[in-house]
UniProtKB/TrEMBL annotation:
InterPro entries given in the database record: DUF1468
Keywords, in A-Z order: Membrane, Transmembrane, Transmembrane helix
Species, as recorded: Bordetella genomosp. 13
Name the UniProt record assigns to this protein: Tricarboxylate transporter
Bilayer-spanning residue ranges: 9-27, 42-62, 74-92, 98-114, 126-147
All residue ranges annotated as the DUF1468 domain in the record: 10-145
Amino acid sequence: MQLRNKQDFWSGVMFIALGLGFSWQATSYQMGTAARMGPGYFPFWLGLVLALLGAIVLLGSLSKKATETKVDGFDWRIVFLVIGSVVLYAVILRPLGVYLSVFILVVLSSLASHEFSWKVAVANGIFLVVFSYLAFIKGLGLIFPLWPTFLGAN
């Protein structure tokens, strides 16, 4: 067996490590049963599924004949845009509310794409604002500030 695809190999290793790490950490929580799940049940099984996916990707990167693959250079701009938009979201959620914070998060993180389009970013932002409202506020009943605090309406 030879390594056919370095990217798939290292992605598989990363998925396996993360999946097993999350599953192992989830065992410190109460598991419960399938009918009455505890806080550790879902992360445990999700971690195992991630590790299984990693194993499939890793095994797919091995073959009898090797081909040369090249891993592109690391693009720090993309990392800073994605992580920075998530950090900014955490900072502005309380003062700006869910609606504006989610919209800003989506548009800023969309800038990291090589195929960025304002039209698509705005449409995704609007869709995710509506989805967040329906899923988390209406569906789950979570309490978040919806509008900026300086407007006085939530």
